[in-house]
Amino acid sequence: MIAYHLPILQIVVPLIAAPLSAFCRRAGMAWYLALIICAASFAISVALLVRVLDEGHISYLLGNWAAPWGIEYRIDAVNAFVLLIISGMGTMVLPYARVSIADEIEPHNQALFYTCYLLCFAGLLGMVITGDAFNAFVFMEISSLATYVLVALGAKRDRRALSAAFTYLVMGTIGATFFVIGIGLVYMVTGTLNMADLAARLQGLEQNRTALVAFAFIVTGIGLKLALFPMHLWLPNAYAFAPSAVTVFIAATATKAAVYLMLRFLFTVFGTDYNVLGLTLTYMFTPLALAAMFAASTVAIFQFEIKRMLAYSSVAQLGYTVLGISFASVTGLTATMIHLFNHALMKGALFMAVGAIVLRHGAATIDSVRGLGRTMPWTMAAFVAGGLSLIGVPLTVGFISKWYLVAASLESGRWPIAVLIVLSSLIGVIYIWRVIEAAYLEKPPEGRTAREAPLSMLIPTWGLVGANIYFGIDAELTSRVAGAAARLLLWVAP
Amino acid sequence: MSLDDVLGLFNYWMVIVLMMTGLYIVVSRGNLVKKIVGLNIFQTSVFLLYISMGKVSGGTAPILTGKPEVYSNPLPHVLILTAIVVGVATTALGLALVVRIKNAYGSIEEDEIQTMDLVAESEAETTGHRR
Amino acid sequence: MIAELPPGLILIVGALLIPLLRPHLRPYLMLALPVAALVQLLTLPAGLHAQVDILGHSLVFLRIDGLSFVFGLIFLIAAVLNVIYGWHEDDPVQQVSGLVYAGAAVGAVFVGDLVSLFVFWELTAIASVFLIWASRTERAYRAGMRYLLVQIGSGVILLAGVILHYRATGSIAFDRLELTGLPTALILFAFGIKCAFPLLHNWLQDAYPEATVVGTVILSAFTTKLAAYALARSFAGTDMLIWIGAIMAVFPIVYAVIENDLRRVMAYILNNQLGFMVVGVGIGTPLALNGVAALAFCGILYKALLFMCLGAVLFRAGSARASDLGGLWKSMPWTTGFCIVGGASISAVPLFAGFIAKSMVLAAVAEGGHWIVWLVLLAASAGVFHQTGLRIPYAAFFARNPEIRCREAPLNMLAAMGITSLLCIAIGVYPAMLYAVLPYQVDFAVYTASHVVTQLQLLAFAALAFSILLRHRVYPQDVPSINLDSDWIYRRLLPAFVDVYRDGLRMMRFRAIARAQVRLNRFIAAVYRHHGPQGVLARTWPVGSTVLWVAVLLCVTLVFYYIE
Amino acid sequence: MIDTTINFALLLFLAATAFSILRRTTLFSVVMLSGVFSFVSALLLVHLDAVDVAFTEAAVGAGISTVLMLSTLALTARHEAPASRSRALPLIVVFLTGLALIYGTLDMPHFGDPSAPVHTHVAPRYITATATEIGIPNIVTAVLASYRGFDTLGETTVIFTAGIGVLLLLAGTIREPTGLRITAMDHHLVLRVVTKVLIGPILLFALYVQFHGDYGPGGGFQAGVIFAAAFIIYALVFGLEAARRAVPGRAVRWILAAGVLMYGGVGVVSFFFGKNYLDYSALGATATAGQHLGILLVEFGVGMTVSAVMVSTYYAFAGQNRPIGDEEW
């Protein structure tokens, strides 16, 4: 009985747990409940991925109503993989968050924090798993609202978290509303909300202007959620001033869900033969992605706060993801899918290391990092490993993504892009080196005693670093799943 | 562009006008509360878009009355019920943030907040480098 | 596999065990190793053994045929003699490197393909340099470095030649190579370096005298003879070698005359003997190759003997320079005797080993009809007699000016010198023993009247000329001077040029860097203006303008779609 | 013909309100105008046969938003600072985008055109099948609670998130009740009497709306808001402490969570009957009876959550400020 209901359990478990955790008065109990629930949903998503890999796709009808009338959950390799990333990272962050949150959030808010965390977690999962367009909007809204609040909770440490949260709220709402307008217009010309049904009925509407407008709205809306280059301005402040555990979570998952949604609408709903899609990819996505890679990385070099630096580097990494999409080839999409997974690992490890520094120093700036190489060896070593993975040094996950990206760019015949990819990761070397140099080559200013981060934070950090290296070496599993997802998106026979 | 085109699409044009007004308020006005009001207008225009899409001329409200009648399309109504609640939720959160910003910064004008931030940021950096 | 174990490996592997033993047990192991190798060599049947297939190539580690057997045999005998001579030496570096060096040489001789030849070629170079460094002086270190540079250089050139040869012909067999294209030229050049061809020979005179007492003796035996064997194996019969050999036979004598350090004189003479061998290889007839093998066989013996004597003198008197030595015959009678026997053998006095080998080569030259070369070789052998037969014994033992008193050479040295002298005399008296071992069956009678008579005439007149010159002080006195010959080019001339250019280059580089620095700073400033924290891209934009960007993007995409 | 004129009139009136909001600088008038804007849009929605939506828009859009905005104004500023940046660029961009969008609408099916794809593909089934499959007259509620029941669960969670968010953001700065018995409203006798009279009917009406949702416009959202409105009026007039004594903050927080649990729970119950999530047919004797019960429970859950959120939000906002004297209003 359980196996059949797995798809809905993936969402209902965290969704029901959220109000339950609101009943807990003490933060410890709420944390403990959240941990169990996240672990359970991670297990469910693993089971789902296994089932999907051999059954192709699973369909679950909510309320037992047939597809276009009721809401249908349709899980295939693409969203099963993203589910795994989100629930995996959600579970990894919680043990880390225990101490980090206790330090960075007011005591009376800590219990409700985990409710908000579970809501965000459920929202992201709901957004990814659903096969209904409007349902995706609703769950996107849940995750967004929860994220605005989570970011605003960083105000105890730095008041700029509030203005960052407000900017993020306005931008997020505009983005979500664009997305709703897009769905509305698509609904107007097709009459249905189910994604699979939409895809079928959109075939004949190439020339329909309203469908064009709908496409523009959807791409812009999700692009904003995805922090596509010109619309990324909310991301650096949101990541920099949010509490560290929150930054780790949203950096590793929020944008991934948005990328998934973009992939789903571009390739499954509108399909590759939709005339405007090809144009968008080549004339809009590629230049924006390249702009993101270079501008964001260059800005990251001059940043003083490390979390903002890593936030800008996230924008750059998203540039890589979008670049993968712009090739619209099986290798390109495989690169994108794999980079979702790899980027989650990389940024997770990096932000966790920075979170440990924030725990010990109150702020993670180039100055506070000075001389940490000796006083916080394990944390800085994790940062270095994460940094190497970010640059794409072989034997790390970063290398695998860069490898597929370069392969895709060569395969599409546009070799200059491959050169640009390598160049931009060189820029990455500069800003990572800036931190490493400050940590290892400079003396800590006298009178600063820093103990190593607590074990409860180090174990998850090094768990991620281990994953970074393991999946860097044995990338068979991730590339197989990513390949299957890419072929599914491009309607290519598996 | 015959007359019935204008008549037929006037609703949608007005929706677009409202949408653009809402967007303009959010873009051009610096006051945070004003921005939220602008956001509300922007979202309300979307509600009107959906509902005017669902209207069937000569149809009545989608409540079954036993007599055979033409009903308007209920689906947009359901969607918009959800959208309204989402809108209110966002407004509530936005206003809560505005209150917190007022407590933290003492002002709800975006430009003033930004100058305060820049000052704080450059101070942090200079002290950081000097040490 | 034990049955097919190449003798060279026994020596190398055994040598590595030496440091594990306690000092006083080591000499016995060191003696046991070469003897075991000898026994192994003698029991092994001829033909190809120990073939190993690596990466698709079959490397032959053991190939025994006439030519390799002779060289292998004399190398092992030399190794035994060296061990005896070095019995008193307890410096592990010398002991290990000496045996590894001998093992590598033996290994190289028996190798069947060029790749493994290269391996042992490099091993000889590396092992031998320790013998030079073992004397642990600044001069020795620098000489060792130069020696290593040359040897490794030759190895690398050999490798290049082998690779190109493999690409050209697809085979790496170590057999007859035609001097046609670049590959074989490179291989010949590499052999030439180790065989101290003219202008490539400086390492020999530069490094050998710097080695330790025992080191020089070991060095003298292996490297050069291995090169000779390699030439004999691959380039037998190339005419060019005849002229090279002839030049090699003559010009060292000129330098030997003015050289003061007796061990450096011997190094020049060694070079001269190589000249004879290279001529023999050049002619390439079976007789000539037999002559080369014989010359190598006897050459190793009497050259080792002379180096041992000089080593003993150095060991006891503390110096090997002619100007410092004199009147040693009273205090070191046995060494003097052995030195005379060595001198006689090298000067090819009948009844001594030198005579039977050199006459073979001279006969081959005569048969080949190279009269000019024959005359040159004749003059050269006269010169050899001059220098080694007369000058070295006279200068070292009989000269009267500084009367030096010292103890006789230690027993083990005397024993080694005794055995070597015995061998020289035995071969001289009963050459058939050697001829049986030579690679080709050639009926050549040595003790014919004409050979003996010509040789004696030659020696007598040379002695006469020596005594006249000495009497009239025409003979250049032994002056403590250091003379540079052709290596003056790369030790004085080139550095001068380099200094001139270096200053010019440094200035240019300095200016270029300064300019680049300015441009770079300007670029970083520009980038900072845009991307820095206050830059247009990084500033925290007000919400309004961020949303504006969204509207702009939407508008652009819409217009863009409509145009399409 | 009358319809189109009313339609245009209301639309133009809406546009006029929007422009005036744009121009006003005193925030109080802006908030009031936004209330007007919501009410007029509610009118237009009624005209467009979207009765449920109009009800919600009026109650939630106009009621709660305006109350929240007013309380925010009380805590923040009264006037908008003069604009510092030039407004030309945004105007141009917005105008161009508007033009592009209008150009995009040309292929849209005309307003009210019955043959539009929207009316021919998915919707007809709802209209025809609701009577038999679910058996309640109000199709909107049927679709809301049953066909697309999961959307509504998501929506309830959205409002729950907003409640939690406001609690997280503002609960920290709520000043402890000062025990100040006299509040500014004490001497407004008329107001006190009228509120006492009104609160009863309001609560009654809320319950009516809650359970009448199946048959006419109404349902969980509207009922929840009206229910909360009663408490907010009470808190406004009789002071926050009185309201807190009536409905303590902790209780509100429990109801908040209970509502969502109720909704999610109903879905989980359908698991035990071996049905898919949120399939109410197993709850009752027959399928339609099950649907009835399911919708009822679900709507009740929504009502609880919405009312609890509105009350707790108001508590959070009201708890922030210091009592305001008459003259400041």
Helix content bin of chain C: over 70%
How many β-strand stretches of chain C? 2
Oligomer: heterotetramer
Describe the sheet with the most strands of chain D.
none
Quick one: which chains have the greatest interface?
B-D, 86 and 104 residues
Order of helices and strands of chain D: HHHHHHHHHHHHH
In terms of structural class, how would the helical and strand content of chain D be classed?
mainly alpha
Helix tally of chain C? 20
In total, the number of domains of chain C comes to 4
Total number of β-strand segments of chain D?
0
**How would the global form of chain C be characterised?**
elongated
Q: What share of residues are in beta strands of chain C? A: under 5%
Low-confidence stretches of chain C: none
Distance N to C terminus of chain C: 80 Å
Number of helical regions of chain D: 13
Q: If strands are numbered along the chain, what order do they take across the biggest sheet of chain C?
A: 1-2
Tell me, rounded to a whole number, the average pLDDT of chain D: 86
Uncertain runs of chain D are: none
Task: Summarize the structure in words.
Chain A has 20 helices and two strands. By secondary structure, chain A is mostly helical. Chain A has a domain at 273-494. Chain A has a two-stranded antiparallel sheet. Chain A is globular, with a radius of gyration of 21 Å. The model of chain A has no long low-confidence stretch (mean pLDDT 91). Chain B has helices at residues 3-28, 32-54, 74-105, 110-130. In chain B, helix 1 (3-28) packs antiparallel against helix 2. Chain B is mainly α and 131 residues long. Helix content of chain D is 73%, strand content 0%. Chain D is built from 13 helices and no strands. In chain D, helix 2 packs antiparallel against helix 3 (51-75), helix 3 runs parallel beside helix 13 (287-320) and helix 8 packs antiparallel against helix 12. Chains in contact: A-B, A-C, A-D, B-C, B-D, C-D. Chains B and D meet through helix 1, helix 2 and helix 3 of B and helix 1, helix 2, helix 3, helix 4 and helix 6 of D.
Can you lay out the helices and strands and say which pair or pack?
The complex is a heterotetramer of chains A (494), B (131), C (564) and D (329).
Chain A (H helix, E strand, L loop, with lengths): L5 H18 L3 H29 L2 E4 L10 E4 L1 H28 L5 H20 L3 H20 L7 H31 L4 H8 L6 H17 L8 H8 L2 H27 L4 H27 L4 H22 L2 H32 L4 H4 L2 H4 L1 H15 L5 H15 L3 H27 L13 H19 L2 H14 L5
Antiparallel strand pairs in A: 1-2
Helix pairs in contact in A: 1-2, 1-4, 2-3, 2-4, 3-4, 3-10, 3-13, 3-19, 3-20, 4-5, 4-10, 5-6, 5-10, 6-8, 6-9, 7-10, 8-10, 9-10, 9-12, 10-12, 10-13, 11-12, 11-18, 12-13, 12-18, 13-16, 13-17, 13-19, 13-20, 16-18, 16-19, 17-18, 17-19
Chain B lengths: L2 H26 L3 H23 L19 H32 L4 H21 L1
Chain C lengths: L6 H11 L8 H18 L3 E8 L2 E8 L1 H20 L6 H19 L3 H20 L4 H32 L12 H13 L7 H6 L5 H23 L3 H20 L3 H22 L2 H32 L15 H14 L6 H16 L2 H28 L12 H19 L2 H6 L11 H23 L16 H44 L11 H21 L1
Antiparallel strand pairs in C: 1-2
Helix pairs in contact in C: 1-2, 1-4, 2-3, 3-4, 3-9, 3-12, 3-16, 4-5, 4-9, 5-6, 5-9, 6-7, 7-9, 9-11, 9-12, 10-11, 10-15, 11-12, 11-14, 11-15, 12-13, 12-14, 12-16, 13-15, 13-16, 14-15, 14-16, 15-18
